[in-house]
TrEMBL record:
It comes from Bosea psychrotolerans. The keyword Transcription does not apply. It is found in: Membrane. InterPro entries: HAMP_dom, HATPase_C_sf, HATPase_dom, His_kinase_dom, HisK_dim/P_dom, HisK_dim/P_sf, Sig_transdc_His_kin-like_C. It comes from the Bacteria. Its EC number is 2.7.13.3. This is histidine kinase. Keywords: ATP-binding, Kinase, Membrane, Nucleotide-binding, Phosphoprotein, Transferase, Transmembrane, Transmembrane helix, Two-component regulatory system. Pfam families: HAMP, HATPase_c, HisKA. Residues 569-595 are annotated as: Disordered.
């Protein structure tokens, strides 16, 4: 219970288990009842098929009996005295599958019989069709047949034709191996089996309750627990021509026939419940994963923020509430990052301010002795007669003193920068001025300066001299980085009220390990550099309300960009808004800028 995901899964189970119990119970009952209903319907259809087969046999016997009757009505007295011809005709009918063909009179005088019939006086004396009980050759048979009354030489006679309902006639039903079909016949001593598709099931008699219902007129009876639960069965009754119950058919489906037959209702209920519970667990785990995933992302984000990584962001997903929380977290992380950067900048400025104050005092104190040393050295050098080595040594002293003076002056300029003397001018004029000033040195080093202007003559408000010095520092650095010559590209652009000047070189680039330190004062990779050039560029950009940044890939050169705000409309003469170079009537760019 220590994780949210586990609690969600358990909660999902607590909610779903009662519903699953109820639905599993209902489903088990519905499936079981539907199966029972389908089995009952199928067995009922099978029993109706059985009865239709018997009915078809009686109708066929009726047709045959009618044919024989028509033949007898045309018989002559001579043929009757010599019945060989008639017997031959009846023998032909007997050979095609009819088990009994007989002709008898109202006095039960047997004129012809294909079998020796016992108790012939029980035979009907009217036209009728149905099921008959016949005893012949010491055996009892149930016969599907018909009796047709006929006039034979002026006397009334009867023709009976039928087929035994035995294993040979109904044996085709054995093809359905899952069915157990039994036919019980009333022989006078009770119902005994005369047809069995499964001989092992012959021992069980028909229950008395079933017999009573069938004798009372019930057509079919379904028993789901037949033979002590071994079968689901349908009992069908067959009534004789006199309306009495003469035979009962048992059509059963063994309970071991298939999957649904082997499981009871409670086993089915347990199976559905376990399956549903497993499905609920899977769905619960999946749903909890979907719900917990954005929360885990938020947790990782909080840990990253706690560790000081304010660049961490989380995806805004997982529903409206969590998405809003993620969006709020991202905004908070961005604001904290800005606060951290501002705090670092303030600490940096505080350190530089304290360092500058101390260094200014030292610089002022050093500047005066340097002047005395320089002056005294020059006097000695000019008045004394020195040898070549002494003169060269004094020259070294003077050069180093001058270099130290330059460093002190640059440092004082950086520590106590002058306020910009602002005016409105084109940003393009800054790089043009630098290009003119550095042209001789660029040509000497075989370096080309390519100016790509997409600023549309944008105007800025600033100090031209300070911006010239900052841009010149960037060009000089680019020249130093390209000892073998190449091309320096100066790109001017404007976007969202920000004008930018980018100086790019084709030198070796800046290693990633030091690119974050290049704007720090006194940081330099040059043997004789002061480390104040890029720091001065950044301070000039900041004094003009802009920024200075660097991008570089080692081996692919470096790019330094000074971004400055576009001049506000109220800074222009007359307050008229201008977003670029003014156009003359001829459509050409007017480079004149009122100052």
């Amino acid at each position: 219970m220590t994780t949210l995901r586990l609690r969600l899964v358990i909660g999902f189970l607590l909610v779903s288990v009662p519903a699953m119990l109820a639905s599993a119970y209902v489903a088990a009952r519905l499936i079981s009842n539907a199966f029972e209903s389908n089995v009952e319907q199928w067995l009922g259809e099978t029993s109706r098929y059985f009865k239709l087969e018997v009915r078809e046999a009686t109708l066929e016997a009726q047709r045959v009996a009618s044919v024989i009757a028509m033949r007898l009505e045309t018989v002559t007295e001579d043929e009757l005295r010599h019945p060989t011809i008639i017997e031959n005709d009846l023998a032909v009918l007997g050979s095609v599958g009819y088990d009994l063909i007989a002709i008898y009179t109202d006095e039960h005088e047997m004129l012809y019989a294909s079998r020796n019939i016992v108790a012939a006086d029980t035979l009907p004396r009217q036209t009728v069709q149905g099921i008959f009980k016949i005893e012949t050759d010491g055996k009892h048979y149930i016969m599907a047949g018909a009796v047709q009354t006929v006039k034979l030489l002026g006397k009334t006679a009867h023709v009976i034709v039928g087929t035994w309902l035995d294993d040979q006639y109904l044996g085709g039903i054995k093809v359905v191996t899952s069915l157990d079909v039994r036919l019980f016949a009333d022989t006078g001593a009770g119902f005994v089996p005369i047809l069995l598709t499964h001989s092992a099931a012959a021992a069980r008699p028909i229950p008395q309750a079933i017999r009573d219902k069938l004798e009372a007129g019930a057509k079919t009876i379904f028993d789901s627990q037949a033979d002590e639960g071994a079968y689901r069965a349908v009992y069908t009754g067959f009534h004789g021509f006199d309306g009495k119950l003469v035979a009962v058919a048992f059509i059963g489906l063994t309970s071991r026939a298939g999957f649904f037959e082997q499981i009871g209702r409670w086993r089915l209920f347990v199976g559905i419940f376990l399956f549903g519970s497993a499905l609920s667990i899977i769905v619960g785990v999946a749903m909890s994963g979907i719900l917990v995933k954005p929360l885990r992302a938020l947790t990782r984000g909080v840990r990253s923020i706690t560790a000081g990584d304010y660049r961490q962001r989380v995806p805004a997903q997982g529903g409206r509430e969590i998405a809003e929380l993620a969006t709020g977290f991202n905004i908070m992380a961005e604001q904290l990052g800005k606060v951290q950067a501002l705090e670092a900048e303030l600490r940096r400025r505080d350190r530089f301010s304290a360092l500058g104050q101390a260094a200014m005092v030292i610089a002022h104190e050093v500047r005066n002795p340097l002047g005395i040393i320089k002056t005294s050295t020059e006097v000695v050098r000019n008045r004394a007669k020195l040898g070549p080595s002494e003169d060269r040594m004094l020259g070294y002293i003077i050069d180093e003193v001058r270099r130290i003076e330059t460093l002190v002056r640059d440092f004082l300029d950086f520590a106590q920068p002058k306020e910009p003397s602002k005016s409105v001018f084109q940003l393009r004029s800054v790089i043009d001025r630098v290009a003119s000033f550095a042209a001789p040195e660029l040509a000497k080093r075989h370096i080309a300066l390519d100016i790509q202007d997409e600023s549309n003559g944008v105007l800025i408000s600033g100090d031209p001299d300070q911006l010239h010095q900052a841009c010149l520092n960037l060009v000089l650095n680019a020249m130093d980085a390209m000892s073998a010559g190449g091309t320096i590209t100066a790109s001017l652009a404007v976007e969202d009220m920000q004008a930018s000047l980018t100086i790019s070189d084709s030198g070796p680039g800046i290693p990633a390990a030091i690119i974050g330190q290049i704007f720090n004062p006194f940081f330099t990779t040059k043997a004789k550099g002061t480390g104040l050039g890029l720091a001065k560029v950044q301070s000039v950009a900041a004094a003009h309300g802009g920024t200075a940044r660097c991008t570089s890939r080692e081996g692919q050169g470096a790019s330094f960009t000074i971004a400055l705000p576009v001049a506000a409309p109220d800074a222009l003469p007359g307050g008229a808004p201008k977003t670029g170079a003014e156009k003359s009537d001829t459509g050409k760019t007017d480079a004149r800028v009122p100052l």
